[in-house]
Amino acid sequence: MGFEGIKGKAHALFEEAGFIAHIADESDYAQALALMGDLIEDYEANRPLIDILAHSIEIWEDESDEFAEFNARIAKLGGVDVLRLLMEQHGLGIADLPEIGSKSLVSKILNGRSRNLTRDHIAALSKRFSVSPAIFF
Known about the structure:
Structural class: mainly alpha
Oligomer: single chain
Order of helices and strands: HHHHHHH
Largest sheet: none
């Protein structure tokens, strides 16, 4: 198929479902979430479309007034808050973080009685949880 055919199919897709590339309102957002739910049923086969749609959803959630309060609260979180959330999500206790050190050190960091997370802690935690180190800053 040549470029003309590709462009024609792309134009037809975005005419039918423009929200895939750009979410303009809450109706588009609802459709995008519904489509995403369907697409992830066969993630590998739908990965390119998922990537495009995920980008559109992310932009909407970052810029929409609907999420402004939530985004403001998230922006105020620090590294220790992120660590608490990761611990909760993974069902971990203070003894489950050898990347930081002893249970007493983990407890002190979590309770604000000791120094914050160090660069080495952040690097090890980022690797363990497969997250960007930036979320701890």
